[in-house]
Amino acid sequence: MDADVIVVGAGLAGLVAAHELTSRGRRVALVDQENSNNLGGQAFWSFGGLFLVDSPEQRRLGIKDSFDLAWNDWQGSAGFDRVDDEDSWAVRWARAYVEFAAGEKRTWLDGHGIKLLPTVGWAERGDLRAHGHGNSVPRFHVTWGTGTGVVEPFVDHARQAARDGLLTFYYRHQVDELVVEEGEARGVRGTVLAEDNAARGVSSSREAIGAFELTAQAVVVTTGGIGANHDIVREYWPERLGTPPAEMITGVPAYVDGRMLDISAEAGARLVNRDRMWHYTEGLQNWNPVWPGHGIRILPGPSSLWFDALGRRLPDPCLPGYDTLSTLKYLRTTEDLADHDHSWFILTQKIIEKEFALSGSEQNPDITAKDKKAVLRDRLLGKGAPGPVDAFLRKGADFVTAGNLEQLVEKMNQLTDKPLLDAAVVRRQIEARDLQMANPYSKDSQIQGIRNARRYIGDRLGRVATPHRILDPAAGPLIGVKLHVLTRKTLGGIQTDLDSRALAADGKPIAGLYAAGEVAGFGGGGVHGYNALEGTFLGGCLFSGRAAGRAAAKQTA
Ligand SMILES: Cc1cc2nc3c(=O)[nH]c(=O)nc-3n(C[C@H](O)[C@H](O)[C@H](O)COP(=O)(O)OP(=O)(O)OC[C@H]3O[C@@H](n4cnc5c(N)ncnc54)[C@H](O)[C@@H]3O)c2cc1C
Q1: Confidence of residue 383 (pLDDT cuts 50, 70, 90)
Q2: What is the CA radius of gyration of the chain?
Q3: For residue range 33-60, what is the model confidence (pLDDT) as tens digits?
Q4: 138 lines ligand 1 (CB under 6 A)
Q5: Taking Cα atoms as reference points, which of 514, 553, 512 lies closest to residue 215?
Q6: CATH classification of 281-486, choosing from 3.40.640.10, 3.40.50.410, 3.90.700.10, 3.40.50.620?
Q7: Is any atom of ligand 1 closer than 6 Å to the C-beta of 43?
């Protein structure tokens, strides 16, 4: 045997599983198709947002959260409707995960040296129904160091285990087959790829220079989702979301290729909920791309006005930062919109300065570098938009600015093949909205939402601009942002039980085969159901990777 356990995929889930194994003395082969620069996978690029319930950070900000509230939110978002079948384990994972987030998670993170910022963000504010989708309260805790701060302890553990002789890295080893014989996982076979010193995230060559086979008592699959493979995204795009856009941008590196899903199915694992995906509608073309089609997601505050490609304000709950998939559904299923791949934000300089955040570790260099002074200077005390946002404003292909609305709309029209926007129509809607600003109450639900958000101190201080008229010249210049659909997360995948054991079509575990992280729908084959509450993907990798590592260690004792 080459190892006690083979872990396929050196992203967050794989690293956590490897740590659980090596800390129990198991010998691990950690196999990845990419080079050592990419250790940590997507999590390294991530914003590092973590879903926690009733945390000390929330309490300090006056947020009253509880397991009951979070579990109600989770169920309302997930909408599990396959509980006797594809959701049977997902529901159990969901409950266990919310219990973890409301209980042990905070101390467990602390134990690994993972620190959180004192502010708590309010992601996915929801679909405006108490029993529906969304977070009733802010729960998005950003890690000090962003995603790099989440992976760092596990990368360190893996390197230490390698020095101790317990872990062997197999970089540039692409797994093509899981070896399951007589119902038991025995190893992996695959292709050795040519050396490629590509920098982190840059797509690497697939030139084959040989074949390999590794054997072990157990195999843990932690190979991520399908986000970079638009063919698979299109193949499983659900009818309820209309037709996929002709053009999408890509929110993940090219190695998130989805190949291991079918390879796992060939080995007997059951794939479930493949029609559930989490793509964003506020994607920007990166002016400084790392991977092919590289897109960045805006994490918007609530004040930008959202218009469809034909210049009509989007209806509730399609408001910035509220309900990702309802917005995607609206844009893809409304008859005269489905031929257009984009939508628009119109906002003011005052809004962009306070409300635009960009997801990704490299877009938040101050937090990523754990530089307290820079965070204070750039985010709280500084004038103007944070540096990376300002760079998009100046260099991004999707941004236009103007001193008045007519000029703005003219420039927006220049970003599409045909001019689709009528400045008079856009003006009428913005003026109607601006008339609602005279009182501290209003009939406009977005303005109600802005005022509601500002009752939370975290939003008032750091995230939501003082309410103002969009057409107030003092708040300008005006900004138009062309928004694209950006592929990111895979919500379904390999069905697993609470020990992360991969299940076969008959519902029984395949001996020695485990799956965790995004490839397993972050636990159970779809812990999120249809919708995510955000910050739940990294957490899902931690929780399911931990379960896989512990169970595989027990099996190989
Ligand atoms: C920009 C960005 C921002 C994000 N922000 C957040 C956030 O704030 N909060 C949050 O919760 N989530 C966030 N996410 C999502 C989260 O980072 C991912 O869902 C998570 O990191 C997935 O981890 P994983 O270990 O399951 O898979 P991955 O990180 O995708 O790792 C899988 C590894 O498997 C390897 N692999 C794949 N196939 C094979 C094969 N056949 N043979 C060998 N190796 C293979 C790949 O090369 C890769 O290294 C973000 C993601 C991105 C990209």
Answers
A1: confident
A2: 23
A3: 999 999 999 999 999 999 999 999 999 9
A4: no
A5: 512
A6: 3.90.700.10
A7: yes
